Amino acid sequence: MGYLQRRTDPSRHSHSRPFTWAAATLHQIAGNIYCCAAGRSPASRPLRRLLLQLVLPEIAAADVAAGRAAGNQSTMASNSNAGSGAGGGEQSAVQMLNVVRVIPPNDDPKWPLWRYVQKVAKTGGGQGGNAKIICRLCNRDISGSYSRVKSHLLKLGGGGVKPCPKVTIDVLIQLKGEQDRADASSNMPNNIPLPTDGNGSTRKRKASAIEESFDVDSRSKLDALIARMFYTAGLPFNLARNPWFRQAFMFAANGKLAGYVPPSYNKIRTSLLVQEKTHVERMLQPIKSTWSSKGVSIVSDGWSDPQRRPLLNFMAVTEDGPMFLREINTVGDTKSKEYIFQKLVETIDFIGAGNVVQVVTDNASNCRGAGLMVEQKYPHIFWTPCVVHTLNLALKSIFAAMNEEDPEYEHCNWISEVSSDAQQIRNFIMNHSMRLSMFNDFSKLKLLAIAETRFASQIVMLKRFREIKEALTLLVVSPRWSDYRDERNIQEKAQFVKEKVLNDLWWDKVNCILDFSEPIYSMIRAADTDKPCLHLMYEMWDSMIEAGVCPCPLYRHTP
Q1: How far apart are CA 523 and CA 544, in angstroms?
Q2: Full-model pTM
Q3: Which terminus of the chain is less hemmed in, N or C, by CB atoms within 10 Å?
Q4: Is the pLDDT of residue 159 over 90?
């Protein structure tokens, strides 16, 4: 209030009526804060009363000092009523505006404040919007356009017009609400007619009795509205298969919901979200009640969200299925074994140490260290490495280039060479639109851009190469491949791709890799599931080792 007192000091102004400007300014500040902070919901009434008690004395003092005692007596009376009960002030403001509101013949929803003034005569000979106007609230003459009407009724400064003395805070709230709604609606896209509305040039066919009985026109219009929602919002078409999407419209169509309006943006992300979360937690309570009798396995893994933020999640797994517990944003934190151990202990304490049977993580060194620390702290809890992650690390070791000093380097280095050649062929074709278009002409299958984080990514890539072998062969022997030139070194790269694709020995190596790695890949697919399969791992492991020992005729070609 110190700032307002300094601004309303008579010694700081040379006007004959120094408090007139201050009163209008206070009205404007109070109205803006009141509209933005208080709103119109019942829950905001205490905040509204407090705002009125703080600001209205300043407004009343400024108005009285300005010499407008007669008008301010009614203003202060209505404001004191609003301070004791905000609902009465709003109701009187609505009644007042209903009395003076006159809808003009050419009413435009974009300019709602024209309804509270009267156009007497148009000024100037141009086509502009300037006119002589009389305010219906204070009967004051105004000369100008809609911007001056807006400045007059909404008490905006800098409009070259005095504010309306009859506009109290409650009236100002109503007027600002109408203007805000008009501004919001004006920003909406143009009302494009639906396909079912027709273009008006053709005469609409009369509906048959069967069409009228089933209300085919209304059904078609609703279908068009739903389709327009998908197109304008960029929603995926798979949303139409969502059972809850279909149930929502079926419930609305079969129920007596005349005048129903879908929930707003804020309601969906606040109260309805909290309601759904509470409901899910209530449904999970029967599963949590079995933890003490059946035991729980805590599963932890790290991943990244679409914003590339590193996250660490924890889940509780029982025979009834997995249950998400929590996730931790690890931005700025080092995922050391001590850090992971601390988060595991917090999760174990949340579930109850007596309910936890084992902790499952991947086989990285930090996770392994954290698992061993958990076993030391809780002797009855076992640490179990993830089978799928362990097998994937084994595949990566097979495909990775070995040290040349290793005695097995001479026999196994060809595996990493074949994998590298396949990646070069894929990148050469996919990194240019023309080459990719040429490939698509010969193949219905697409070249896969396999992420390195996917399990057995090299195996998946080589499997796809074997499926498109014929298409690659037709591509490199076609005249378009020989005639196409776009870079200086294109000939060398194209020749490399052609040599590998037409080399039978290279394809024999690909087949050999897929054959001896098939047992590992099959076990990864069998274990990478939500179904309990720990009791099958030992037998699958023995079968994998036995099936992996297979003769490979390729060794006769290796140096």
Answers
A1: 7
A2: 0.54
A3: C
A4: no
